[in-house]
Amino acid sequence: MVELPERYNVSTILDRNLERGLEEKPAVRWAEGELTYGELFRRVCAFGRALRALGVRREERVLLILDDTWAFPVAFLGAIRLGAVPIPVNPLLHPEEYRYFLEDSYARVVVADEAALPKAQEALKGREGVRLIAFAADPPEGEAFRLEELLQAHAGELPPADTHRDDMAFWLYSSGSTGRPKGVVHLQHDIPYTCETYAKHVLKIQEGDITFSASKLFHAYGLGNNLSFPYWVGAGTVLLQGRPTPERVLDTIERFRPTLFFTVPTLYNAILNHPGAKGRDLSSLRLCISAAEPLPAEIWRRWKETFGLLILDGIGSTEMLHIYCSNTVDALKPGSSGKPVPGYELRLLSPEGQPVPPGEAGDLWVKGDSALAFYWHQHEKTKRSLQGDWFYTGDRYRVDEEGFYWYKGRSDDMIKVKGLWVSPIEIENALMEHPAVREAAVVGVQVEGLTRIKAFVILKEGYSPSDSLTRELQEFCKARLRPYQYPELVAYVEDFPRTVTGKVQRFKLRELREA
C-alpha cells in the first residue's frame, strides 16, 4: 500500500507526472482536442487561484455541474489544490435538486457547463453570495464568470494547500434510490488507496494505457476510471461528452483506441444489440470492466463470443469510492462479483450480526481505507452504516467454496415467498437466458395480502407479448431454478425506471405493479 506523508493534498497526483517527465504527454483527449499533463496542471493551478480571488476559503464547497469535458478535472483538482471541497453532481438533474445540494452543502461556488447553465441559474435564484462560473461560449452577461477568462486572468502556479491526509478532499452524493441523496465525505488519502488496490492489482494499469469510461466522471465509478487511476500512473484518458449511446461509444473506441473500457451491464447489453456491432473494431481493448449493477453471465458470454474480450465484473459503491470485490483475469467466474480486492476485507453477517454458515446468503460488510468518513448531515445514518472499520453495504451475498461472491440482491430486495427467501437476481439471470428476453427485473408484489413474484420483461426485437410467451418464460425458470423461483406474474415494458448509473429502481417497479 502507498505510504502517504501526513501533510498530503491529492491534487499532487498531477505533480507526480511532471516529476516523471510527462509534461508533454496527452493526459486528456476528446473529439475536438487534447490537453497534455503540463497544460492540465497549469489550468488546475489557475482554477485554484481563481477560486481564491473569488473569496473561496479552505474546506468551503464548490458544486460541479459538469459533463465529461476538460473542465471537470480542472475544476475538481483545482478546488482541492486550494483546499476547497469539490462536489461533482449529475448534470442531467432538475433545478430543485441542485437547490437541495446547495442548501445541504453550503456551497459558495457553482461551476456549470453550457447545457446545465439554465438549471444552475434557476437553482441559484434567491441565494445570496453564491458565485456562478460558466463553462460556456457566451454566458449571460453579469450573471456568471466565464471559465476560460478566469483561467487566463489567474494564470500562474499554485502550491497545494497544506492539507492533512485525513482532511476532507471531496464529496459525492449518493444516487438517492430511496429518499434524498446523501453527501458522502471522502478524505485526501482515499483516491491513492483505490489506485494502489483495485487499479494496481486488478487493472494492472500502466503509463501506456488509455482509459475510456462511458460511466461519467461525476459518479464514483467514472471518477476512478477516467481520472484517479490514469492520472496516478501517467496514462491517457478519453472523454465523451453527452449521452453514451452504443454508436457513439463504438465510434470513440475505434477513433481513440483505448486499452481499458468501463461501463455498466445495461450499456454492454445495448452495444451487443446494436445493429452492426459485431463488425466494429474493438481490438485496442485489453480489458473491459463492469460495475454499478450485477453483470448477467449471459451478457458476459455474448460479449466474449462477439468481441473475444473479457469483462471483469465487480462491486463497489460511492461510500467505498470504487470497486472492492472483483473478478480478475486469473480468477474469474461469469455471473459472480469475484473475490475481495487486495487491501479490502469482506464478511457476511446475519441481521443479528452473526457470521452466516458457509454457502448461505448474508449481509455484506466491507473494510478498507477508502471508506467514507461520514455522511454529511446524516449522523444516525452514519452510525448505522459505519461500525468501527466496517461499512454496511446493504447488499446480500453468498460466497462459494472457492471464495467467489455471488450477489443475491439488496437486503430490502430479497423476496420471501411461502416462507422461503428468493433472490430476484437468480430469476432475472434465468430469464435473460431465454432468446426472447433482452432485460428482466423481478420484484415482490402483494396479491390479496400475499407476496408474489413479478417479472418486468423487455423483449428483443421480433417478439411480442402473449399469454403463451408468459407461460413459456415461467416454465423456462422452473426448469433452471427451484420450483418456487419463477414469476407468477409477468409484465412486458419498454424500459425500467433507473438511477443515473443505470441501476434498476426496484422500488419504482413495485409502484407499477398493476402494469
Automatic annotation (TrEMBL):
<dbReference type="GO" id="GO:0016405">
    <property type="term" value="F:CoA-ligase activity"/>
</dbReference>
<keyword id="KW-0436">Ligase</keyword>
<dbReference type="GO" id="GO:0005524">
    <property type="term" value="F:ATP binding"/>
</dbReference>
<dbReference type="Pfam" id="PF13193">
    <property type="entry name" value="AMP-binding_C"/>
</dbReference>
<protein>
    <submittedName>
        <fullName>4-hydroxybenzoate--CoA ligase</fullName>
    </submittedName>
</protein>
<dbReference type="InterPro" id="IPR000873">
    <property type="entry name" value="AMP-dep_synth/lig_dom"/>
</dbReference>
<dbReference type="InterPro" id="IPR045851">
    <property type="entry name" value="AMP-bd_C_sf"/>
</dbReference>
<dbReference type="GO" id="GO:0044550">
    <property type="term" value="P:secondary metabolite biosynthetic process"/>
</dbReference>
<dbReference type="Pfam" id="PF00501">
    <property type="entry name" value="AMP-binding"/>
</dbReference>
<dbReference type="GO" id="GO:0016878">
    <property type="term" value="F:acid-thiol ligase activity"/>
</dbReference>
<dbReference type="InterPro" id="IPR025110">
    <property type="entry name" value="AMP-bd_C"/>
</dbReference>
<dbReference type="InterPro" id="IPR011957">
    <property type="entry name" value="Benz_CoA_lig"/>
</dbReference>
<feature type="domain" description="AMP-dependent synthetase/ligase">
    <location>
        <begin position="23"/>
        <end position="376"/>
    </location>
</feature>
<feature type="domain" description="AMP-binding enzyme C-terminal">
    <location>
        <begin position="426"/>
        <end position="503"/>
    </location>
</feature>
